[in-house]
Backbone:
């Protein structure tokens, strides 16, 4: 069924739809598909880490999925593991024990969060781990990467910027429509669907 629709409403609906889709895509990409800077460390050991951004980071313990007997149970005894993170001036960055259990699984590897850290500024840091049991037997593996919470906050921030730009565009279009109407311009405002 064909109907007559105001071009103004069609443009407004189009801008709102594009804004909503852009917001969703921006947030989803930021959370699920954004670049992942991951640094792995075999403990005992140390590695130099170059953080491109300040903010929240998380340190995970990784182990093979085959070792897990019950979900969430860490199969290795990591007693005696001591992790440190130092800035270029050798000042230690405080590590907080994880407040909530988080884990990830990639192929045959499972990661369980151990610590969270707030990196005060971008730059070089020394990531090290002492693990007495690792000198006598197999080493254990640690990963430091951007905190999931931080990724969500940044993705929502970028999404809000995208959404705000569409709100500004919508405001400009509405202002233009109202100006044209106030000036009494004869505008073909309808089209047939």
Residues:
């Amino acid at each position: 069924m064909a109907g007559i629709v105001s071009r103004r409403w069609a443009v407004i609906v189009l801008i709102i739809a594009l804004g909503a889709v852009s917001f969703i895509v921006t947030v989803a990409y930021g959370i699920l598909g954004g670049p992942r800077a991951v640094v792995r460390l075999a403990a005992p050991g140390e590695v130099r880490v170059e953080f491109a951004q300040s903010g929240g980071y998380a340190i995970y313990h990784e182990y093979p999925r085959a070792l897990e007997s019950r979900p969430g149970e860490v199969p290795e005894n990591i007693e005696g593991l001591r992790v440190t993170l130092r800035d270029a001036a050798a000042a230690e960055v405080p590590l907080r024990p994880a407040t909530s259990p988080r884990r990830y699984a990639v192929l045959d590897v499972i990661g369980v969060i151990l610590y969270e850290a707030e990196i005060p500024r971008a730059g070089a840091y020394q990531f090290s781990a002492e693990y007495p049991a690792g000198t006598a037997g197999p080493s254990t593996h640690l990963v430091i990467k951007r905190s999931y919470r931080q990724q969500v906050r940044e993705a929502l921030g970028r999404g809000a910027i995208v959404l705000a730009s569409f709100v500004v565009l919508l405001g400009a279009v509405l202002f233009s429509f109202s100006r044209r109407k106030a000036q009494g311009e004869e505008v073909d405002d309808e089209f047939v669907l």
